[in-house]
Amino acid sequence: MSKIAILCDSLAYLDPAFKEEHDIFVVPLSVTFSDGTYRDMVEIDDKSFYAKVEASGEFPKSSQPSPGAFMEAFDEIQAKGYDQVLAIMVTPRASGTFETLKMAAAQEEDLEVYPFNSQIGLQAQGYYIEAAVKERDQGRSVEEIIANLDKLSPYSKLYVILDDVRYVLKGGRLGSAATALVNFLKIKPIVKVGQDRLELSARTRSLKKAIQRVVESLEEDAAKGLPLRATISGRKDFEPYQSLKAIVQEKFPDMRLDEGIIGPTVGVHSGPNAFALMWSIDTDKLSLDDL
């Protein structure tokens, strides 16, 4: 029977305890300041990253892993006795990491590597990883796991609320038309990520209104009757983050609600005070076989 390793990039920002317990392999992206380049959550974590941004006043840059970084991960995976790799990556709309993975996979001779595009990012990407762990531990094949993971896509949503648009304008991730509009109107944009799309979802004049919009989107999906889980990510000392958390807890008292971070590489483009709400199917309450 094949032994399946699960590999991801650092943009899933997995809980360290979960990563260690389930032997998840992570290839980090990097951020670059004027004084050097740091590997995401290896040489710089979220707190030290945002402190450095605020102290330096710099707009750092991000970079994807090299093919060599993936080859090194493959060597580590093989050394631990695995013979197959399910590699669950961030959407290509946010990073070229998935394409780099495929280049490295084509060169790998000893392992069977299965690239999987989660079509999303942050802890919503982590939902796919958690589901894959559960499926693997049930003895499913890689092909069976991938078939079930594909079912999550229509139900997985990620909304990022931007407080300071300077960072996303520098990165150009929204496209020229949306960037010009955001810059002109001085708004608090909501960026929607999912199903391999990254787009400006709404244009609001305040963070309070932005919070209302994303909660309304969650309400619409929750009303469809399927069990959902949600995650709020960002800086816990930012008051609007706590406001969003309180509203979600009040409106959805029975929904599993986790908290996560927006780490360095995403923070390059979102800025220090961005925060996010995401959700998907709660696979503890509904098996992917039943979707």
Automatic annotation (TrEMBL):
InterPro entries: DegV, DegV_C, DegV_domain_contain. The keyword Isomerase does not apply. Gene3D superfamilies: 3.30.1180.10, 3.40.50.10170. GO terms for molecular function: lipid binding. It comes from the Bacteria. Keywords: Lipid-binding. Pfam families: DegV (PF02645). The keyword Ribosomal protein does not apply. May bind long-chain fatty acids, such as palmitate, and may play a role in lipid transport or fatty acid metabolism. This is DegV family protein. It comes from Aerococcus sanguinicola.
